[in-house]
Amino acid sequence: MTEKPHLMIVEARFYEDIADELVKGAIAEIEKDGATYQRVSVPGCLEIPAAILYALRSMDFFTARKRFDGYVGLGCVIRGETTHYDIVCNESARGLQDLALRYALAIGNGVLTVENREQAWARASVTAKNKGGFAARACLDMIELKRQFRLYPR
Length: 154
Known about the structure:
It is a single chain. The protein is α/β, with parallel strands linked by helices. Helices cover 50% and strands 20% of the residues. It contains five helices and four strands, in the order E-H-E-H-E-H-E-H-H. It has a four-stranded parallel β-sheet, with helices on both faces. Strand 3 (70-78), helix 3 and strand 4 form a beta-alpha-beta unit. GO terms for molecular function: 6,7-dimethyl-8-ribityllumazine synthase activity. The active site is at 84 (proton donor). Keywords: Riboflavin biosynthesis, Transferase. Its EC number is 2.5.1.78.
């Protein structure tokens, strides 16, 4: 019997209402798969990769703690009047990709990068594009791929 994965959901709380909807979609997808999860909140999207790295590093010191099999990063970046939008979008995505490649992590990237709140809601809503659920599904699928390559226990 295959043990179900244990995921870490990292939610950026800058836009709390959108974050809540993204998390709702992610949790539904994780529970549908029979997996378990733990939620961690961070202030914004730039902090998501650091939170994942903290969790990863903590496993080096606290071996009795249940390890995470995958990570789901959720948040929203809405374009403003300055170039800060570009920095947050690019660096949060780069941070997640760097972690996935360096440590062979299963990461679902659910960071929305949009022009306005209407676009954010269209993507976050569980009755529309459900990007939170999509990010969780991507993470679960990558865990399964790791199993196929024997990078993750069966």
